[in-house]
Write a structure and sequence with these properties.
Strand order of the largest sheet: 1-6-5-4-3-2
Number of domains: 1
Structural class: alpha+beta
Strand content: 15-25%
Helix content: 25-40%
Order of helices and strands: HEHEEEEEH
């Protein structure tokens, strides 16, 4: 496991970060959710630098916020917390490394929720 040193902006401006670098497989899941959002929703994408928020049953996604409100994560699923700086893929960190089975469950549960989103 690689520990994470935050980007300068994360450290200076108080944006959240988690203790570990985010594995590629988790970033791929989040990329898939970000892309699916563009297909199924007309709302601003909470995975981009939009300020948008989504608080669903299976997961939460909170875009980078320029405001003063405290954020502890940008994406949450079960006890997994992922943070990034300004946009997904930049300074992306995670609080723990999930198993292969958990990664598959995350993709399945979150995608299923997006596909039935009104």
């Amino acid at each position: 496991m690689n520990t994470h040193l935050p980007e300068l902006g994360q450290a200076c401006f108080g944006q959240p970060w988690q203790p570990l670098e985010c594995p590629t497989k988790i970033q791929c899941v989040l990329d898939a959710l970000q892309n699916a959002w563009h297909v199924v929703s007309k709302e601003d994408n909470p995975f981009g630098n939009t300020g948008a928020r989504y608080d669903g049953k299976s997961f939460k996604a909170h875009a980078y916020s320029w405001g003063d409100d405290e954020q502890e994560f940008n994406f949450a699923w079960r006890d997994i917390r992922v943070s990034w700086y300004k946009y997904l893929g930049r300074g992306t960190t995670i609080n723990r490394i999930p198993s292969e089975l958990e990664i598959a469950e995350m993709l399945r549960e979150c995608m299923a929720e997006l596909l039935v989103k009104p």
